[in-house]
Amino acid sequence: MASVFPKISLKPEVEAYLQSVFKNKELLAALGSEQSELKFEALLNRLSHPPAFTSIRVNTCAASTDHIKKLVTEEIQKQFKGWPMSDIPVLEHPELPDALVIPVLGPRLNLQRHSIEVIVGAQCGNAVLRGAHVFIPGILSAPKFMKAGDAVSVYSDICGKCKRGAVEFMGPKAFVGNGIAELSRNEIFCSNNILRGVGIRMTEPVYICPSFDNFLSSFVFLQNLPSVVVSHVLDPKPGERILDICAAPGGKTTHIAALMNDKGEVIAMDKIANKVKKIKQNAVNLQLKCIKVFCYDGTKALAKQGIWDGQGPPFLPESFDRALLDAPCSGLGQRPNMACDWSLKEITSYPPLQRKLFRVAVNLLKPGGILVYSTCTITLAENEEQVAWALDSFPCLHLQSQEPHLGGEGMMGAGLSYDQRKLLQRFDPSSVTEGGTNVVSSDLNSSQIAHLIKSANKDTIGFFIAKFVKVQDA
Question: I need a labelling partner for 208 at 20 to 30 A (CA). Which of 3, 129, 239, 431 fits?
Fold first, then answer.
């Protein structure tokens, strides 16, 4: 399938670095130069496009998956009333009992462009491609004569070159769909107050997926499928004490609490105050009481033996049953992402921080405890190489098999054995052979549903999961 958008734009030094990762000696020996190059180009193309499915995690402490499925189906029918898309199926994932999967329809290649062009920031453009309307703060440019009610075409400023308030923009941009302006240009840019709310209501997005803004916020959480998998892999049990060492915005934190039936203790930390507020808000929205949130630097969360106030961090060694390290990372697996302007120095700056956090997590874990390490990036240095380092640095750690295992095996190039790589889980957008879907019927047979679920497991963001057990006698 031809790409709708150009491949992700990277600085030449970053693209060269990633090419060296995806054409490393082990991979070249196994796949050959031509196949390695094709996989790398497929990866760059897929990263600029959204995943072909939206996934919703149900808060099973508050409602059943089946009940929420009915409500989500009704919401879709309401949003797309009169459209042929009103019959989009809502699928229960057979291996994730609290996940619903919804095909994204598109891309629609033949939408008519309007003469009124509105430019939005790249982050806003990415959100539109995943079902959002355009919120006022995301609007960068609109023509002088634009008024409320006008039909407009929306473009994403993929390289961050558009100045806020410009009347036109001639730089690199990507068409993300058509909509109706809710306000005039003057109202958007000349107000003395900071405006919130929807600025452009999308009526013809390039990719059609339902909007779930403020929808059943106590019952559902929009979450990428691999992020749902992580907490199941951690497998927390009621009554346990769990550490989520880099927890913002709290999607996995709240999932862990729900899997424990809100019984036990989930300690969530983040060192940025605004992010901590977000974790707390998500816990309140989902009505989960066993979560304790702290604004704290995870690298300093290990207390010296015997020094602990009994409240918050730092914590004593060996005081948690399980730990999740969803590590700060370069984020190169996020989709859609049409441009990344980071330097190679920025992209490669994360492994030292990840190792500091890893050391703390290992020390805070009880013997027999479980540690899950995850990232939303695609590099070897932040994924398989960190696993190789951890196994070498901590003889007490052994890799564990993962359940469920929906992604592929770990990537070659970090010196891990085949058996070790089979225990890892890498979600690889380059393995996606087709983009988008045109399924519009909820009346599917079992083989069609199985095919869609298989596609949903593949067509995700780039993501990595490793699971370790801390053995009793190191």
Answer: 431
